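Human: Not sure, check this?
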Amino acid sequence: MPKAIDHDQRRREIIDVTWRLIVKGGLEAATMREIAAEAGFANGALKHYFPGKDDIITGAYQLSMDRVISRLTSAAQGLEGIDALRAIVRGTLPLDQESRESARVLLAFWERGLSSQAIKDSYEEHLASWRRDLTALIGVCRRQGAITSETPDETIADELILFNIGATVLSAIGPSYARPEMLERMIDDQFAKMGVPAELAAVGSAQHAS
């Protein structure tokens, strides 16, 4: 009998290949022909697993998000309040090779979103969820006395998101302007703007320097 095909496994393989092609050469390198060739498929066979390229790009983006979530879960494990917030902010920034590779995939996803309403809508949903989660954690930190700034929680969340997106873009196209040591200093600056007491800020910085 012919061997059963694991369609979910094939889709994961296609997404992995797409992710690697984008990291190596950007969105232009991830043509349907190249994706099929790298994944070991005949031309046209991808349509059996994905309706179109947007669906493959979205899958590669989701793979990047899954890796980010895995890093955040690990980084924030056992932490609460301001320490958890700092770990989450650091975990979403391009501070290591893996996160800088993810930045290339994000740029491709954003570029595709300019011409795809579905991708644009998907990212806006992600932004809304990210903002809600950050705002909720910032509120916890404020109630614990770790954030004393009069800046509204939603505004702080927006500033952290903009900081993250700017750093992500620069890490991919102008890495000398987003060196890890620069980003670490900027994290300290962001937390100082929140009015985090010096003793709490010092503890957080020491934890992540070790």
